[in-house]
Amino acid sequence: MKVGVLGTGDISHAFMYAASIAGVITESVYHREMEKAVRFRDQYGILKAYDDYEQFLSDDGFDTVYVGLPNGLHYQYGLKALENGKNAIIEKPFCSNIREFDQLLEMANRKGRFVLEMDRVQSLPNFKSIKDHLNDIGNVSVASANYSQYSRKYDAYLNGTIGNVFTTEFSGGALMDLGVYPVNAFIALFGMPEKVTYKVTKLPTGVDISGTLLMEYKQFNATVIVSKNSIGNKHIMIQGEKGSILTETAPSVIEDLKLITRKEVTDISYPQPHDGFAYTLMDIKDIIENRNMQRYSDRLKQTKSVVTVLEYARKSAEIVFEADKNTY
Ligand SMILES: NC(=O)c1ccc[n+]([C@@H]2O[C@H](COP(=O)([O-])OP(=O)(O)OC[C@H]3O[C@@H](n4cnc5c(N)ncnc54)[C@H](OP(=O)(O)O)[C@@H]3O)[C@@H](O)[C@H]2O)c1
Question: What is the whole-number distance in angstroms between the Cα of residue 236 and the centre of ligand 1?
Fold first, then answer.
């Protein structure tokens, strides 16, 4: 697997770190401004820099495109990459709605290529620990997560500069940005909820700056609190009749995992020396290079479930993206 990177923002730098751990070679980089593409190329000793997407895609030095662009661009750039015979690894959240998911998958299948979400949660060793210890807490009675992180971009927003993450044009908002991690975790642990309801505080731009998502399961409820304009106690907590599992780190990070029973508190963290990104890329590399179709289909199923919950949640909060109005 050799990669061409789209975008030169923070997340593309994080990708390069993950690539160095996972042993993935980056051959080319694209940015719509040549100067930024060249700066990124030179920083990492990448072979080629492009500011023309068509030319970038016709470079046969790499087989896989990493889409590190704002949410609202994932679909169009990912689709074009697939159409041109590349695999596509797309940042979270994978796309804006279910229709986009179906079309990306349809194109990947038609071209015999892979399309995968760069989701952190499932690949983390400590997420595996949560799964391994779920039986220890007995029947789940309630689950909760809080991912509140005051955003620098919110200060800029207050000063009149509206970042992509705060627009419906780029499929932004707190749920799409932060909520995607705990939603991913709860779906991977408990499956699809029977019902979702999202109550929000909206910006005048139409996106949620904070909100509370209720995921209703047969026997219990899971809540997810997200906020980009306040700080909070980041955590995931799963409470059962015999004990609880708790991490008080960000739901994208999941460290310092504890099993709490009436008698004792036990550290159940697994070794997790790398940044979370690296584990995801290792998994994706395995799927693509070894054509591991079972793992591929499991990940796609998970991604579709997350995209579906996010869309239903948004609908309940009347958050409409430009992508929802497109007929393609
Ligand atoms: N940032 C993080 O820590 C982080 C963490 C996890 C996941 N993600 C995901 O990574 C993706 C990118 O997020 P981000 O916050 O890094 O976004 P961003 O900084 O706003 O943009 C990422 C890259 O896309 C470029 N870009 C912006 N608008 C564009 C346009 N209209 N056409 C083409 N290129 C454009 C940016 O160029 P300029 O720099 O010139 O604007 C930058 O190189 C999102 O899907 C997000 O959910 C980000």
Answer: 26
Q: Are residues 23 and 90 in the same domain?
A: yes
Asked whether residue 79 is domain-assigned, the answer is yes
Identify whether 176 is part of a domain. Answer: yes
pLDDT digits (tens, 9 = 90+) for 43-65: 999 999 999 999 999 999 999 99
Residue 256 sits in a domain whose CATH number is: 3.30.360.10
With CA atoms as reference, report the closest residue to 261 among 244, 247, 248. Answer: 244
**Are 83 and 196 in a shared domain?**
no
Region for residue 182 given its phi and psi (left: phi exceeds 0; alpha: psi -120 to 50; beta: otherwise): alpha
Q: Whose CA is nearest to atom 15 of ligand 1?
A: 70
pLDDT of residue 150: 98
What is the C-alpha to C-alpha distance for residues 212 and 260, in angstroms, rounded to an integer? 25
| Cα(170) to centroid(ligand 1), Å | 10
Helix (H) or strand (E) holding 135: none
CA-to-CA distance for 173 and 195, rounded, in angstroms? 21
